[in-house]
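Folding follows sequence. Below is one example:
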Amino acid sequence: MPIVAKCHKLLENEILRRSSQIVSVVGDQVHIFGGELRPREPRDNDVHAVSLGSNAISSKPTTSQSPSPRVGTAACTQNGKIYIFSGRGGIAMAPIEEQGAIWEFDPATGNWSCISPSDPSVAPAARSYHCMASDGKGTLYLHAGCPEKGRLSDLWAFSLSRRKWTELAPAFDPPRGGTSIAFAEGKLYRMNGFDGNTEQGGNLDIYSPETNSWASHVYSPDGKAGPSPRSVSCLLSVRLGGRSFLVTMFGEHDPSSLGHQGAGKMLSDMWAFDIESKMWEEIVGGDQLPLARGWFDADIVGANTVVVHGGLGESNDRLGDVWTIELS
C-alpha cells in the first residue's frame, strides 16, 4: 500500500509571512520564530504560536531577554522546550556570534533563557542555514551551515546537563548550507543541501554516536528511486504502521541567479524512507496540496503528522500559511 498524505490548510496570516524561520511543535502549539519578509531583513523576534486545536494565533512580544532578530537560525525541541543556535542578523546580516550560547524558550512560561557553555573556548562557530536535532535524552546536535565565508561540514553535540560542547566526526564533504538532519532509532541522518555550486542528493548519511563515525546509503536521486537533489528542505522522523520512516519534502532544486534576492526552482514532492528496508517511496498527495516551496520549516505532531509553515514560493513571495500533513 502506498503512503498517503492527507493535507489540511489550517490558516494563512500576514504576520506569519516569512522564510528562513524555525518551526517547533510543543504539545498542540506550533511555535514560529525568526525569518524574513524582505530579503536580508529579519522580520521580528517575537514568538508566534498557532494552536492546532483552535487555529488561533498568539504572539509572545519581544523582551530584554529575547534573542536578537535573526534569519537562518536552527532549532530543535527537548523536554517541552525549544532550543536555537546563532543565525544571521544585524546591519551587516553577519553570523551572530554568541560565544557558543544556546537559547532556550519555555512555552509554559513564555520566557527565553541564554545558556552559555561551561567552556566557551570549545564551541561551534557562528553560522546560518545550519540544522539541529535532539536525541530526546539531553543531547542537541548541530551540523553544517554558512559561517562568515564558505560552508561547513562539522558536527557538534551539546550536553544540556553539563552545558558542554563536544566536536564530533565531521560529515562527508562537500561542506554545505541548507542541509537537513533528523535523529531516529539511535542514529543521526543527514541529506541534501547546497555546496555553493550544486544541490546535493543521492546520499543519506548516517552518524552513529556510539562509534563517532559516519556511513552513507547511496540511492538514485532521479525522482523515481529516490528524491531529486534539493536544499532548504526538511528531514523528519515519523512512525507508520509500527515502522520508523524519514520524511523529506519540498525544497529548492535550482538556486536563483539572483542568489538570496530571488527564488529558484521549488519542489512540491514528498518522500518517505523506510529505515529498516532502506527504500524510498514517494508519498501520494490528495487534491489539496501545499504550494511548492523552499526556505520553510516543519516539525512533527504526534507520530505521523507533519506541520509545514511558510517559506519562499517560486513567485519569490514569502508564504504565511500553516498546513498539517497526516501520513498513513
Remarks:
- The domain at 4-327 is CATH 2.120.10.80 (Neuraminidase).
